[in-house]
Each structure stands twice: as C-alpha cells, then as structure tokens.
Amino acid sequence: MWIKICANTSLEDARLAAEAGADAVGFVFAAASPRHVTTAQAAEIGPALPPDPTQVGVFLEHTVDEIAATVRGAALHGVQLHGAFDPWIVEELRREFGHGLFLVQTLHWRVEDDANGSEACLLGGYKAVSRQGVVDAVLLDAKTSTAAGGTGRTLPWKRVSEVLLAEPRGLRIILAGGLTPDNVGEAIRTLRPWGVDVASGVEVRPGKKDPVRLEAFIRNARNAFSAIENKSVGAGRRPGVSPV
After folding, report:
1. CB-based contact 189:224 (threshold 8 Å)
2. Which domains are present in the chain?
3. How confident is the model at residue 233 (pLDDT cuts 50, 70, 90)?
C-alpha cells in the first residue's frame, strides 16, 4: 500500500502529511497550477521533513534538463511526468539518475470524451509504457479540456479496472482523480491499485491542506488496503499487480 499527498506548498502541510503516515509527498512544478512551487521553495521544505516519505516532483511540459535541475536542486526522490508519455524523456531520466529515482508516468482518463475514446486513450498509453518497461509505476488521473490534474473529477473505477484487466502486462497502478476521504475506500476496493494519490480532496482551498480531511484520507485508505490484503494473501493482484 502506498499513499501520496500531493501538491504541498508549505512546510506545515508537507510535515502534516508525513506525520500522518503518508508514504510520499508531492510538489507541483507546473507553472500554470494554483498549487505551483519553485525549486527553491521545495528545497527549503524537503530537509525539514522526516526521512521516510518519498519526495516526488510533478512536471508538465518541462524539458529533461529542467527536470534534472529541479531533482538535484530540491533533492527529490521521485519524478511524476504528468504530460503525454514521451519515451525519450523517460529513458534520459533513467540514464541520468539510475534506478534510485522513483519514476512515475501519468495516464489520463479524458472525462469529457465518450467512453470509447477515453478507454482507447488510457489503454494505448498503458501499453506504450508497459512495452518500454522503464517507469516504476503509472498514475491514473482525470483530465478535462482545461486541466490535466487537480480537477476533482473521478474516474469510472469499475470500467477502468475492466480495461486494464484485459491487458496482460501488469504495471504498478497509482489511482488519483477526485479521491476524497469519503470515496477512497470504495475506489481501492473497486480498482485494487498499488497506491493512491490525492490533492484537492484534502484541501480547504487550492494549495492549503485540511488536517482533518488529510488524516481521514490516510486512515480510510489504509483500512481499505488492509482489508484487501487480508482477503487476498498469496493471490495475484490485478490490475495493480505488484505487491504493496
């Protein structure tokens, strides 16, 4: 089980996530996001956190050089590529940082498209990432015409599960998109991902976390993951096939 609290903009919020038991904390470097932070801001937050959470940078439309500079400048442990899958960028980052860098590729469910179009987009990306075999996990998020994340829109979890079950090559799956303390348990039970990721679902406003909702999210997610593990000890895990 893996839980990431994303889009942290202050030490207070990142520390809250770490102390509540998050496995990872995320920082958004996309300039257009209301949750944007700079490399310098992340570099001030990171050293003040406990050592356990993986610190992940979220990048959209950045070059390899820009990503690499931020990874070094903010001492990040992971990179989440939130734009379209670019095999060359993935290969270059792996070559630059080796397997010590936790590398995540986002795949989008286009919520404004018809179901067939959304399915084809997701499955095509999933196959391409799996075929390359370089990233550590894929993150599933909802995309609209105006935003590639942080939309508050959920994915059709059951249909997504069916789409990915039809694909024989299993990848670690991190579920995002409209998750909240109230629905994360149902989402986990339906899709059975390797991990979950939340930003807007635990905020009082963009970039500011709600301590009560954040702690409830982590608690409810862990309870759901534990219930699944208790029922499936020794069984294969699909679609999030890697053991948690």
Report:
1. yes
2. 2-231 (3.20.20.70)
3. low
